[in-house]
Amino acid sequence: MRARSLPVAAVVAILIVVTVACLTAGVSLGPVQVKATTVWSVAWNNTGGRLLAPVPVTWPRGDEQIVWLVRMPRAALAAVVGAALAAVGAVMQTLLRNPLADPYLLGVSSGASVGAAVVALLGALSSWGVYALPSGAFLGALLAVLLVTALGRRSGRAGPVQMVLAGVVVSYVLSAVTSYLVISSPDHQAVRGVLFWLLGTVAGARWDVVALTAVVAAAGGVALLARARVLNAISGGEESAATLGVDVARERYLLLGVCALMTAVAVAGVGAVGFVGLMAPHAVRLVMGADHRAVLPVAMLTGASFLVLADLAARTVAAPAELPLGVLTALCGGPFFLWLLLRRGGRSGLGVTA
After folding, report:
1. Could you read off the pLDDT of 79-99 as tens digits, one per residue?
2. What is the pTM of this model?
3. What is the SS3 string spanning the chain?
């Protein structure tokens, strides 16, 4: 069977079931086991279902707190971030004509890291309370996006090579700033917190952060899916897309802007979690082909399921200690990257194409 002959609706339906199963496992399993029926009964009662047909409470109060206040927000945040990063990775690989592109190629992660370090180590935005760290990360990510955009424009033709090079430069400079802030800080406890955040974690997930991230990811996903035909045209080459009436430069800025916003919100929520945007789109293209109308929704569901399972592993593999989320994604992404390098490197090379 040819991969692209798979019916998209059937694959999406199957992946929705898989994602729900992953969420159920992500909330149920842990040092305290919670029944799957309890998980969704608690969710139903806390999301308006209580007003329609409340489920009688037959579970311990502690289970409800574990489900609603601890595990479900972090599983939901992991799912939303995984979906956002996967969609962004699929689009950036097409726009930048680079099969190894992922959401961090433009230095957004490094910008968010600088913002978080400034908040945690220098006390900036301290009056914002619990919102200080994600707000600082978000502002830092936006700063990186603006720098990359400005450098890309000043380099003349705003092609994929110029954008990638600008992103690499910004990423290295901002990473150096973060390293300086960490090394020069006398507050060792704050340094430890920043380093753990830099490696990725959803341990501090709250429903307000989940809601903000979900709104941005959903709006961005819809915007990207609406330009799926444009992405299909660009994937065939800029000249080919131009003959079809596509303004490639304008579309590239527009779509990269959406990608940058989605990445900034994701990084602000969970820290620097790499490789999701690299692995999910490639795995999906092997099964679904290259049509972005299929790749985008399937990649988002794949990324959501993957990051939920990664978070489950992060808090159970070495319990009671919790592993950084980025460590586990890197352990999966590293071999995948090597496989991709060997697979594509032997055929057509991995460089950026202008």
Report:
1. 999 999 999 999 988 887 777
2. 0.86
3. CCHHHCCHHHHHHHHHHHHHHHHHHHHHCCCCCCCHHHHHHHHHHHCCHHHHCCCCCCCCHHHHHHHHHHHHHHHHHHHHHHHHHHHHHHHHHHHCCCCCCCCCCCCHHHHHHHHHHHHHHHCCCHHHHHHHHHHHHHHHHHHHHHHHHHHHHHCCCCCHHHHHHHHHHHHHHHHHHHHHHHHHCCCHHHHHHHHHHHCCCCCCCCHHHHHHHHHHHHHHHHHHHHCHHHHHHHHCCHHHHHHCCCCHHHHHHHHHHHHHHHHHHHHHHHCCCCCHHHHHHHHHHHHHCCCHHHHHHHHHHHHHHHHHHHHHHHHHCCCCCCCCHHHHHHHHHHHHHHHHHHHHHCCCCCCCCC
